[in-house]
Amino acid sequence: MREGFYKNRRLKSFLFLSTCFLVTIIPHVYDIGGFFYFILTLSLVIAFYGLILISKNFQRNNLSNTITNRTTNKELPALDILVAARDEENVIARLVERLFNLDYPKNQLNIYIIDDGSSDKTPLILDRLSKQFEKLKVVSRSPNAGGGKSGALNYALKFTNGEWLLVLDADAQLKKDSLRRLFNFVEEGNWSAVQLRKSVINVSKNFLTSCQSMEMAMDAIFQYGRLSVAGVSELRGNGQLIKKDTLLDCGCFNEDTVTDDLDLSLRLLLTKSRIGILWDPPVMEEAVENLNALLAQRQRWAEGGLQRFFDYGDQLVTNKIDYLQKFDLTYFFILQYALPIISIFDLFISIAFLDSPIYWPISLTAFMLSGIAFWYGSSCKSEVPVSQKSNFLMVFISIFYLSHWFLVIPWVTLKMSIFPKKILWRKTIHTGV
Prior knowledge:
Layout: H1 3-29, H2 35-55, H3 60-68, E1 79-85, H4 92-99, E2 109-116, H5 122-132, E3 136-141, H6 148-157, E4 164-168, H7 178-189, E5 193-200, H8 207-230, E6 240-243, H9 244-249, H10 260-270, E7 275-285, H11 291-316, H12 323-353, H13 360-379, H14 392-402, H15 405-418
Parallel strand pairs: 1-2, 1-4, 2-3, 5-7
Antiparallel strand pairs: 4-6, 5-6
Helix pairs in contact: 1-11, 1-12, 1-15, 2-8, 2-13, 4-5, 8-13, 8-14, 10-11, 11-15, 12-13, 12-15, 13-14
């Protein structure tokens, strides 16, 4: 991507940040009649749409299990599993052994591990595994090949010949019958892509891992609701299945973004390719276990999330998507990205002017919806436990945990607005729990 494109992102970040500041300070400086009632009305609209999304999950679980557990005599399609691995000595052997133990026709399954310039023992482990498993295909890239995970996946694409691609992270774990059940779901819904619900392996490790587990369940609740109401859903990087032709038609993986999954999700939406959300069986992965790792991960997610809106925003306001989809995207853009910035500005301006915060009803509504989705997601029937302590106190604490986004989003937006940007892909360290 050209240097000018990065500057364009930087300008859009600055304009976005400036807009949030103006939206915050104007009602503090000028007495706008009825503005607080407008905020209350907006909060009610946000609450109403959020509750509709959550309610769409009430019948989801039984329907999903009925479909995925159905037996079929239809021949399963050729599937290529792709795993981009850099310095994954702790988990790569476990992953490969479990992938070759999956219940799927061996002549229809190919497994590609991309050694993306590893400097640890990953290459040695993969060399040993390739002798143990004849059908294991190891693809190697140099450390300076560029493009991050997207570059590794794109490089491996030229070796694949399957009809479908399943992208996994190196710490992924699947149930033995996951692939068969996944394709039952694909056949029933005629999806172009499917995202498996992400579930945490080390849920009971500590407070942070428990909260992340509940957060993933909450995310799946909203994702399923958005798909049911507006036809909008997103990939999550690990456990994403996509038809190869669909991927090629929309330009493969974007090597100029730090979150290839979020970027691809918007491009699929613009090409009217449908992404299904499957609750069970989930894909299991490690949650990060300390605050520094969490903040590093969330900064990358925040940056990638903003990048996609800055990159494709002009297309999202055209007629490529319908009005309900535009509303849904606007709704979540405001809650996920604008609200944290406005709330921080609102707090600082209130302190400086010795005034009361103005936008607190919207923040309160957002936390309320998150709490309901936390509780419901944790109490839903699930093949893998979402929470070890599913009670009111844990839900309340988890809502407080979500407040870290109100620091991460403003900080990332400020960095994107001020500092020249070079694309850096920071990997999450996997310990092999």
